[in-house]
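As noted in the main text, all predictions were made from sequence alone. Below is one such record, for Dolichol-phosphate mannosyltransferase subunit 1.
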Amino acid sequence: PDGTQEGAEQLVKIYGPDKILLRPRAKKLGLGTAYIHGMKHATGNFIVIMDADLSHHPKFIAEFIRKQKEGNFDIVSGTRYKGNGGVHGWDLKRKLISRGANFLTQVLLRPGASDLTGSFRLYKKEVLQKLMEKCVSKGYVFQMEMIVRARQLGYTIGEVPISFVDRVYGESKLGGNEIVSFLKGLLTLFATT
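Prediction:
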């Protein structure tokens, strides 16, 4: 509904269907189902998940690949909170919510990764498939659960500092309901992991 599909259709015209594979869904069905839908069409051994609005800059993908090869990591996660990573375009409230969510998660779950609410990641395809079978969360908790379950299953996680740039068009869906859902999800993960 935000124009992403139309933008992607234009890119297919420019770069060709051999470079960009567009597999739209009938309506917005949630992040987890989008991952499953994408995995059905992925042909390689690795899958990169990133925001389509380019808040996640593609220039970091080469660094993700280098990091994965360096340590044969199962997951390489972009981090805004380590090294020269950072966030651009967020107000103080949004930065505090994100930092607070990551801090609480670190204290309660000891996940072994510094940025749990971010979604810019490289996965070995078979690892992503196994994690998707285990994860039950929806919304913002989903990203966190992916890392927590990965640690629980003994998968290795590498990190690459990234710069996150807030979207230019549209607005974040982060509101009071999402924050309450996140806290409920965090407590559920704490109780079950």
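DSSP finds seven helices and six strands in the chain. The chain has two domains: 1-43, 45-192. These features were considered when defining construct boundaries for the mutagenesis experiments described in Section 2.9.
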